[in-house]
Design brief:
Number of strands: 0
Distance between the termini: 56 Å
Number of helices: 16
Largest sheet: none
Order of helices and strands: HHHHHHHHHHHHHHHH
Shape: elongated
Helix content: 55-70%
Structural class: mainly alpha
Amino acid sequence: MSGFQGRELCSFISKNPSILTHSLKKTLVPSVEAIRKIVCDQKDFILVLHRCGWILPKYKRFMDNAVFLERCGILGTHLALLLKLHPRLIIAQQSTIENRVSRAVDVGFRENSRMLVHAILTLSCLSVKTFERKLKLINSFGFSNDEGLQMFKRTPTLFRTSEMKLKVGMKFFLHTVMLPKSVLIHQPRILMYSMEDRVLPRYKVFRLSKSKNLCKKVPSYIHVLCLSEEMFLDKYISQFRENAEEELLVAYKGHYLEA
């Protein structure tokens, strides 16, 4: 087995004893070689073999499904991503994979789109009822079906967010911050940010710096929210005089202001 020696090989076989009942030349070696062609990074390759050794005996189905997915435009790093994150889908009945692709196309994704794999990964985690329930939750905040689907198309992983987190985020951004709906339609990823670690603390700093006129040009809250941690600290905390910096840090790391 490429990549396994000594104890690692023993551990791999103990986890996947059924591979010993399959032909080395006809099944196991071709399976390993097929995975190697898809997963080029050595660490990822070893990780996939460790986690998904049970795929190896399923060579024919694996290859048939890989060929089908490649025809849909899911190849290279995207196929590797699917193999790493949802290996069971790779050896599912082809009708199951066709269903996932069909569902993604039905909600607006194109075959050969770079986002198709992300849609399939999300739809594989959600039943039709759960997907529709989350879409209705978004609708309840004044978004149309088309607008909700636009949000899904931009950030498919949004629909893996819990309904409670979606509801809390919607209420905060629309009713507290008073963002226009168009911002959430175009940047739905902000609904996935941690309320406790990012959204609320940065809102406190934003309000405090605005009330004290610390910035010559007042930034938008979305600009502040989307900065990396390093850039945020540099631009909106550490550059100010010592007493203001301390107050901003308290607002950011403590609970100086009420949200």
